[in-house]
Design brief:
heterodimer, A: 244 residues, alpha/beta, Rossmann fold, six-stranded mixed sheet, 10 helices, 26% strand, B: 289 residues, mainly alpha, ABC transporter involved in vitamin B12 uptake, BtuC, 11 helices, binds adenosine-5'-triphosphate, binds magnesium ion
Chain lengths: 244, 289
């Protein structure tokens, strides 16, 4: 029996952003932004300060609603839904500045993610195994832990839920080089666990080292889509859009 | 000496009423960012519902009906009016809740007239108990104990339940709660209804002690705001500390020099604002938008 020639199965698209335009008041910040992430992929969104990276993530999760365009998760439209229901569908944003609840303990910060999850994700034991530092800090308040621990906590909160797409907004920002290394390892673990991830970074080489594909955004427009290798090889591209 | 002890106990009872109202104000402000001038109206409505039920059906039912009626009223108010003012500046909230309070007061005046009213507790609760040098009305002691138990339950709800966890998280960062899939709207409604129910229940339960008239709502609201400012906006224990402090201050000043008993609480507030603007137990933290 001969096996038919198989076409490599196209990765199913998990998240598709299609021509979105997002405004803050009158200021038009995202212009026809389109991108897609396949199931299990790790995709980086790169760009300089203030070009619209965070706004792209906010548009996906319903925090800043696009005026036009579409965002779909496994084919289901997200534009028009509120933040809570998008989160409960499995789109999980770990925002800039982490937004750990500073008036709650580390344990309570983890607990609330479990309480609000539609479906559970990782178990607490699994989280402690991957983030041993958090276990030692359980009774500390959210403002009594280091920046690196806050970042770990913010990521752990997302993983305690059944995440379909993880959106990480500059997870290494403001961290000491040694801690940046730790966060990178965590992101690699997340990738290894098969979790679909959109990673926003200014830290170019950190992002390129984990991403399967990447986009470059500038002035609210997607200017490049390709592989990390292409970005590494193209000095002119980097100079133009990333200034490195 | 006896007069002093009596004033001390009187201050406790009055202070606990302030605590109960202030706790509602504080958790509603913390969760909804709403400065609720209609909160005194919740007390008044509870008191009148309690009065009617106590006189026609029975005192026991008054304690059930008042908090439920007031909670329903509050939820309706929230849905129909207040919801569209959550994102507005504090002045707009102040004006709309103040307006609601006036409408409630005038409506109560229309229905019940302007006279002062009170209902009596059943005979078994009208007695007095001897406490060392003084005898004190049994119901007042029971009332104080009841309010303390109620406040303990509210504290447990906020600190030990999953709903309470969402509420506390929402006090700091409403956006992040939603990003985690938390239902901040539902939590807000529950907190609003809870705060209202507390005021309504205390209003009904306090009527045998403090007679009511349509202006009662404002009469209790104003010192309760002082309590919240003194204790620290948004702080549960601040409301407790501030309430007891203001209640005792008022009661003891009343004993020493009655005409000063109202002025003294504003002096106390001014002092706290000068020395510790965030209130005795308030944190001067940034609240995320
Ligand atoms: N809340 C807001 N109101 C008005 N304008 C905003 C708001 N947030 C962002 N902007 C503007 O929108 C543009 C894109 O901002 P965005 O935060 O998406 O950039 P970013 O790529 O994430 O930048 P950074 O690297 O600094 O995080 C910027 O010009 C910014 O000034
Ligand atoms: Mg950003």
């Amino acid at each position: 029996m001969s096996t038919p020639a198989t076409i490599p199965a196209a990765v199913t698209t998990r998240l598709r952003v299609d021509g979105i335009n997002t405004y803050y008041g009158d200021s038009h910040v995202l212009r026809d932004v389109s991108l897609h992430i396949g199931a299990g992929e790790t995709v980086a969104l790169l760009g300089r300060n203030g070009v619209g990276k965070t706004t792209t993530l906010k548009s996906i999760v319903g925090w800043q609603k696009p005026r036009s365009g579409s965002v779909t998760l496994d084919g289901a439209e997200l534009v028009g839904r509120d933040m809570m229901s998008i989160a409960r569908m499995g789109v999980s944003l770990v925002p800039e500045e982490r937004r750990v609840f500073t008036n709650l303990t580390v344990a309570e910060n983890l607990k609330i993610a479990q309480v609000t999850a539609r479906k559970p994700g990782w178990t607490l034991d699994h989280v402690y195994e991957k983030f041993p530092r958090l276990r030692e800090r359980l009774t500390h308040k959210g403002d009594e832990i280091s920046g690196g621990e806050k970042q770990m906590l913010a990521i752990a909160r997302a993983l305690l839920q059944d995440v379909k797409v993880l959106l990480l907004d500059e997870p290494t920002e403001g961290l000491a080089p040694l801690i940046v290394r730790e966060v990178e390892n965590v992101i690699r673990e997340i990738k290894a666990a098969g979790i679909t991830t959109l990673l926003v970074e200014q830290n170019l080489y950190s992002a390129l080292s984990v991403a399967d594909r990447c986009y470059i955004i500038d002035q609210g427009e997607i200017k490049f889509e390709g592989t990390p290798q292409q970005v590494r090889d193209d000095a002119a591209l980097r100079q133009r859009y990333l200034h490195v | 000496m006896e007069a002093f002890f009596e004033a001390l106990l009187g201050g406790l009872v009055l202070g606990l009423i302030y605590v109960a109202i202030a706790v509602g104000l504080t958790i509603i402000f913390g969760t909804l960012r709403l400065v609720n001038f209609a909160h005194g109206a919740f007390y008044a409505i509870g008191a009148y519902v309690g009065l009617v039920i106590a006189q026609h059906i029975g005192v026991g039912w008054a304690f059930v009906a008042a908090p439920i009626a007031v909670a329903l009223f509050a939820v309706l108010l929230d849905r129909l009016v207040l919801r569209s003012f959550y994102d507005k500046e504090p002045t707009a909230q102040l004006l709309v809740t103040f307006g609601i309070a006036l409408v409630v007061e005038e409506t109560l005046r229309l229905i019940f007239g302007a006279t002062t009213q009170q209902y009596q507790m059943p005979g078994s609760l009208q007695g007095s108990v001897t406490l060392g040098p003084i005898t004190y009305p049994a119901y007042r002691l029971l009332f104080a104990a009841g309010v303390i138990v109620m406040l303990a339950l509210v504290w447990l709800f906020i600190e030990r339940t999953n709903y309470g966890l969402i509420v506390r998280a929402g006090v700091r960062d409403r956006i992040m709660v939603q990003l985690l899939g938390g239902n901040i709207r539902q939590a807000s409604t529950i907190v609003f209804a809870l705060g209202a129910a507390i005021a309504g229940l205390v209003g009904a339960a306090a009527t045998p002690i403090y007679s009511i008239d349509p202006g009662t709502g404002f009469a209790f609201l104003v010192p309760s705001f002082v309590v919240v400012v003194v204790g620290g906006l948004g702080s549960f224990w601040g409301a407790v500390l501030g309430g007891l402090l203001i209640g005792e201050l008022q009661s003891l000043t009343n004993l020493a020099y009655a005409p000063a008993s109202n002025v003294v609480i504003y002096l106390c507030m001014a002092l706290v604002l000068l020395l510790r603007p965030q209130g005795l137990l308030g944190e001067s933290e940034v609240i995320r938008q």
